[in-house]
Design brief:
Shape: globular
Strand content: 15-25%
Largest sheet: 7 strands, parallel
Order of helices and strands: EEEHHHHEEHEHEHEHEHEHHEHEHE
Helix content: 25-40%
Bound molecules: N-succinyl phenylglycine
Oligomer: single chain
Length: about 375
């Protein structure tokens, strides 16, 4: 397919409630969307980078800049050298640029969406989905008090979410977990996410979570401390899951081999795209490591692609693939709505969803057309 140009579009979406994690509180999302126009179709990509580099080194202004100055020219060079621009070729064409995986993922996603729409094939079919609906877990932020947390958890369980993930940090960990277990019982699927907030010195403290039968503890240590996670895993009964540390199939292989994790949270943006996400899935399955699909407060565009990914056979744990209403009053696409604790995997060509023009225009803060 021949690329004609790319639109960079920034939208601002207010969150239905502040979302507090160990690295900060978010009240709105400033999102970069890419619209790729080819001879045959157009495709949408969503960059999951946040406004500030607090989750990882990427941030949305840098993503827009690296697309404009380095990633798009790399695609132009590839196209001018006669190489067809399929999604499979995008990763290779962008490889000389170091890092910026969320920006690369958004670009690959848009090219893949255009390619699949032209072929009339869904993301689910392309990626290898084996189910048509996926179980929805929900991520619950840090609250000001345990009663407020319990109200939030009760609300999500009433909505039908099949798994609860609690954000934790030093000073907000054992007590909220114990309170959730006491109020909602031992059968609720429950896990925690530290977003790198602890150190190895906290091992004995984190072992106090072992009696609560958690599915996993996610990314307790800093992203580069793979060996530390291997040591911590030996000190805990709760399975260790990695998020920020896993940026590629190569780092996933190393983490698994070093015993740093027994579960992996796959986020396509963090690893450079949906094709690399599938490689990590395949690798994890080969090693008997469970994977689940993480979330970055995506709009319905990223949510559609995540639901397709979460339908692959190795995604044996419920992911953070929540309904649109978890974060947004109005989604940029038709909203994803929980049905008996599950989301339907889109079946249409490409993402199977597209922005609603009037909503998109209302949310747009900036748009920029880059011709090739
Ligand atoms: O369901 C969702 O989309 C959010 C899930 C979630 O908690 N995401 C966290 C995370 O650390 O995984 C996050 C949110 C925003 C930005 C970075 C990270």
């Amino acid at each position: 397919t021949k690329l004609q140009g790319i639109e960079l579009r920034r939208i601002t979406m207010p969150l239905v409630a502040p979302f507090r994690t160990s690295f900060g509180t978010q009240r709105e999302r400033d999102i970069l969307l890419l619209r790729v126009v080819t001879d045959d179709a157009e495709g949408w990509g969503e960059c999951v980078a946040m406004t500030e580099p607090l989750y990882s080194a990427e941030y949305v202004d840098a993503a827009a800049d690296v697309v404009r100055r380095f990633l798009l020219p790399a695609l132009v060079r590839r196209q001018e050298s006669g190489g067809g621009l399929t999604a499979n070729a995008v990763g290779h064409a962008l490889a000389p640029v170091k890092g910026h995986r969320m920006a690369k993922a958004a670009l690959e996603m848009a090219v893949l969406d255009a390619e699949l729409r032209a072929l009339g094939r869904s993301f689910a079919t392309e990626l290898g989905a084996v189910v048509d609906r996926v179980p929805s877990g929900v991520s619950v932020g840090i609250h000001d008090s345990v009663p407020e947390l319990l109200d939030a958890v009760g609300g999500y369980l009433d909505e039908g979410y099949v798994r609860i993930k609690l954000k934790i940090e030093p000073g907000w960990d054992v007590e909220p977990v114990r309170a959730v277990r006491e109020r909602f019982g031992d059968d609720v699927l429950l896990q925690v996410d530290a977003n790198t907030a602890y150190t190895l010195a906290d091992a004995r403290h984190l072992a106090q979570l072992d009696p609560f039968d958690l599915l996993l503890i996610e990314q307790p240590l800093e992203e580069e401390d793979v060996l530390g996670h291997a040591q911590l895993a030996r000190a805990l009964r709760t399975p260790v899951c990695l998020d920020e540390s896993i940026v590629s199939a190569q780092t996933a292989a190393a983490a698994i081999t070093l015993g740093a994790c027994s579960v992996i949270n796959i986020k396509p943006g963090r690893v450079g795209g949906y094709l690399e996400a599938r490689r990590i899935h395949d690798l994890a399955v080969a090693h008997g490591v469970a994977v689940w699909c993480g979330g970055m407060l995506e709009t319905g565009l990223g949510r559609a692609a995540n639901a397709a990914l979460a339908a692959l056979p190795g995604f044996t744990l419920p992911g953070d693939v929540s309904g649109s209403g978890r974060f947004y009053r109005t989604d940029v696409t038709e909203p994803f709505v929980l049905d008996d604790g599950h989301l339907a995997v889109p079946t249409g060509p490409g993402l199977g969803v597209a922005p609603l023009p009037e909503v998109l225009d209302e949310l747009t803060t900036r748009t920029e057309w880059l011709p090739l």
